[in-house]
Amino acid sequence: MEGIPNTIDVRLAHDVRALCGLDFDTSPVPMWIHDRRTLAFVAVNSAAVAYYGFSRTEFLRMTMLDIRPPEDVARIVKDVLYPHFHDPDGDLRRHRTKKGKLVNVGIKAYKLRFNDRDLEVVVVDVAARG
After folding, report:
1. Contact 95, 67 (CB under 8 A)
2. Pair type for strands 41-44 and 92-96
3. N or C end of the chain, less CB within 10 A?
4. For residue range 40-93, what is the model confidence (pLDDT) as tens digits?
5. What does residue 91 show for φ and ψ, rounded to 5 degrees?
6. Alpha-carbon distances of 108 from 3, 58, 61, 84, 90, rounded to whole Å
7. Which whole number is the average pLDDT over 10-19?
């Protein structure tokens, strides 16, 4: 997954397309891939860059915790420690843009094992409202 920062590994792109039916790099839907153990972003598409306002380089220096309001961090940790925990809010999440604006989004997450890493592909529904 190293290399050209604007694209993802061809094999990983194929796996993402097979999982969620979307082309990662060109999808108009915000998407990212993060490491499930560290929560670090490992890839982010152009739609996510445009929606959240962080550059691709900034995203790749961040974790999922950096786009969540501080009061939601405990829930994220619970989701990571207890992946079968039923969240009463379903797939609705609050995210923070670079400008600090809180936005309600829906998410669909797909687990993926790639190059001996446990990853998660997240597809963001910016039209979801709480």
Report:
1. yes
2. unpaired
3. C
4. 999 999 999 999 999 999 999 999 999 999 998 888 777 766 665 545 445 788
5. -95, 10
6. 27, 23, 23, 15, 10
7. 75
Q: Is 76 exposed, middle or buried (0-12, 13-18, 19+ CB in 10 A)?
A: middle
Partnered with residue 110 across adjacent β-strands are 121
Cα gap 125→96, rounded to integer Å: 14
103 in helix, strand or coil? strand
Whether 23 shows a pLDDT value over 70: the answer reads yes
Q: Is residue 24 classed exposed, middle or buried when 0-12, 13-18 and 19+ CB atoms within 10 A define those classes?
A: buried
Cα 129 from chain centroid (whole Å)? 18
Q: Are 60 and 48 in contact (CB under 8 A)?
A: no
Angstrom distance (rounded) from CA 66 to CA 129:
21
Query: Residue 97 has which token pair?
Result: 């843009």
* Count of all residues that appear for the chain in the document: 130
Q: What is the mean pLDDT of residues 11-27?
A: 78
The model's pTM: 0.82
